């Protein structure tokens, strides 16, 4: 059993409302959203002028101008300028990975305090030109003589002005995340009805959580909005059933806009510390990060003829983590499984229940088994709340820590799939 040298305390978190692409944050970028979020956390914990050990944050969709995004956000947060900051990204698992990285450094005694954060804008994306035009511009910049300049300009073509927009696709397969998940849904024989039911549940839970005030101390108003604008309290299973396939429109696709996560803008941040630092500052500990793991899958079929599902890596990461913790899948009070798509969650759960999958893929004698669905994403998940790629992990950590603090004891499991065929998992306990 793995035991950390000293505990990693989660003191709490904050985020701005998550907003659908091209809505409230369409004129803002990653730096503005991240700066506002970290400042909100600093204000909440009266950390103005404090020097923290480190701040780590990241984004998936980012401009080259954001090369020092986290440090710039720190300098705008009210923290002392001696607080360092650095960028880190692992696709959709970015802010959970920042928490793991900083938490590990707290555990070994290098740091006593840190902020783990993440941000993403699907609205303010970098738009670039093709490589041919890029090379012309670079050659033009290098040119020393008029002849060299004219030579570079002469290669220009009108089609060079066509911009290239970023796409959420895998370079090794050319398929989008949704197309990959559609393949997973087919492999595991999921119906649209199953996926719609999970999506409907996510919206109902999220709407109830907002109504009950669960998010009131976790979400700070920003840029004219005070709530996540993707939550649909008025949706119904009948409405969801009428939506057409979004990623496979010709051969029985079951993933729709209603049971998939929308492209989203937003940011989140979590305050981590050692117990001594928390005590010295008078901050109660909400929960502890006790175990974590990452894994990858061969989604491109590089070592075999079998292409594993792009978003199935959590099926590997979670059991690896459970073995290190000496726990079973059923030993949890809460399960936070990121809803990249309703299908991803259902495929993951079916895989853990499958004796064949667990034996062949995970090398286990017995299946991991089922979980109590009443403990799954009880305050809503990404389908309802939205999914700014880099910010989802921070949202989940803050919400789960609050749930454990309210309960007074317990254990929660976090499972996040990511682009690139990776999975990130963690355990929070109180």
Compact overview of the structure:
Helix 3 packs across helix 14 and helix 6 packs parallel to helix 11.
Structure description:
- There is one protein chain.
- By secondary structure, this protein is of the alpha+beta class.
- It has a domain at 177-215 and 290-429: 3-Layer(aba) Sandwich (Peroxisomal Thiolase, Chain A, domain 1), CATH 3.40.47.10.
- 35% of the residues lie in helices and 16% in strands.
- The protein has 14 helices and 12 strands.
- It has helices at 30-44, 69-75, 94-107, 131-142, 146-154, 177-187, 192-212, 237-241, 275-281, 314-325, 342-353, 355-360, 382-385, 392-407, and strands at 8-15, 19-20, 54-57, 86-87, 113-120, 128-129, 163-164, 264-273, 287-296, 334-337, 411-418, 422-429.
- Strands 1, 2, 3, 4, 5, 8, 9, 10, 11 and 12 form a 10-stranded mixed beta sheet that branches. A two-stranded antiparallel ribbon has the order 6-7.
- Helix 2 links the parallel strand 3 and strand 4.
- Helix 3 crosses helix 14, helix 4 runs antiparallel to helix 5 and helix 6 (177-187) runs parallel beside helix 11.
- The two termini are 18 Å apart.
Second CATH tier, the architecture of the domain at 177-215 and 290-429: 3-Layer(aba) Sandwich
Shape: globular
CATH homology-level superfamily of the domain at 177-215 and 290-429: Thiolase/Chalcone synthase
- CATH fold description of the domain at 177-215 and 290-429: Peroxisomal Thiolase, Chain A, domain 1
> Helices and strands, in N-to-C order?
EEHEHEHEEHHEHHHEHEHEHHHHEE
CATH class of the domain at 177-215 and 290-429: Alpha Beta
**Number of helical stretches of at least 4 residues:** 14
Which runs of at least 5 residues are low in confidence (pLDDT < 50)?
Answer: none
Q: Mean pLDDT across all residues, rounded?
A: 96
Characterize the main sheet: 10 strands, mixed
**Share of residues in strands:** 15-25%
Counted beta strands: 12
**CA gyration radius, whole angstroms:** 22 Å
Say what oligomer this is: single chain
Distance, first to last CA = 18 Å
Structural class: alpha+beta
Helix content: 25-40%
């Amino acid at each position: 059993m793995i035991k950390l040298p000293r505990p990693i305390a989660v003191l709490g978190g904050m985020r701005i409302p998550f907003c659908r692409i091209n809505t409230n944050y369409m004129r803002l970028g990653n730096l503005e959203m991240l700066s506002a979020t970290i400042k909100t956390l600093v204000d909440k914990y009266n950390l103005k002028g404090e020097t923290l050990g480190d701040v780590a944050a990241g984004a998936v969709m980012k401009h080259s101008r954001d090369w020092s995004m986290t440090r710039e956000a720190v300098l705008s947060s009210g923290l002392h300028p001696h607080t360092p900051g650095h960028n880190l990204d692992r696709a959709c698992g970015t802010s959970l990975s920042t928490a793991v990285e900083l938490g590990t450094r707290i555990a070994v005694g290098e740091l006593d305090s840190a902020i783990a954060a993440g941000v993403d804008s699907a609205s303010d994306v970098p738009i670039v030109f093709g490589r041919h035009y890029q090379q012309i511009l670079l050659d033009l910049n290098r040119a020393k003589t008029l002849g060299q300049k004219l030579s570079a300009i002469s290669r220009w073509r009108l089609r060079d002005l066509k911009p290239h927009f970023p796409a959420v696709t895998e370079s090794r397969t050319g398929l989008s995340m949704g197309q990959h998940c559609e393949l997973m849904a087919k492999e595991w024989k999921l119906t649209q009805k199953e996926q719609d039911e999970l999506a409907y549940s996510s919206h109902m839970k999220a709407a109830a959580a907002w109504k009950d005030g669960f998010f009131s101390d976790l979400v700070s108003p920003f840029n004219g909005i005070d709530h996540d604008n993707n939550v649909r309290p008025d949706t119904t299973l009948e409405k969801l059933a009428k939506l057409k396939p979004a990623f496979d429109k010709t051969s029985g696709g079951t993933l729709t806009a209603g049971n998939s996560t929308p492209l989203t803008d937003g940011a989140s941040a979590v305050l981590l510390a050692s117990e001594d630092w928390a005590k010295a500052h008078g901050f109660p500990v909400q929960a502890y990060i006790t175990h974590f793991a990452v894994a990858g899958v061969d989604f491109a079929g590089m070592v075999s003829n079998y292409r594993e599902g792009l978003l199935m890596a959590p099926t590997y990461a979670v059991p690896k983590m459970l073995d290190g913790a000496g726990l079973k899948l059923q030993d949890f009070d809460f399960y936070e499984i990121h809803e990249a798509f309703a299908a991803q969650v259902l495929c993951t759960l079916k895989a853990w229940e499958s004796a064949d999958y667990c034996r062949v893929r995970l090398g286990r004698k017995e299946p991991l088994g089922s979980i109590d669905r009443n403990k799954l994403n009880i305050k809503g998940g990404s389908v309802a709340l939205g999914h700014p790629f880099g910010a989802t992990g921070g949202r989940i950590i803050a919400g789960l820590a609050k749930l454990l603090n309210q309960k007074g004891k317990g254990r929660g499991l976090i499972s996040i799939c990511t682009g690139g065929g990776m999975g990130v998992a963690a355990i929070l306990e109180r």
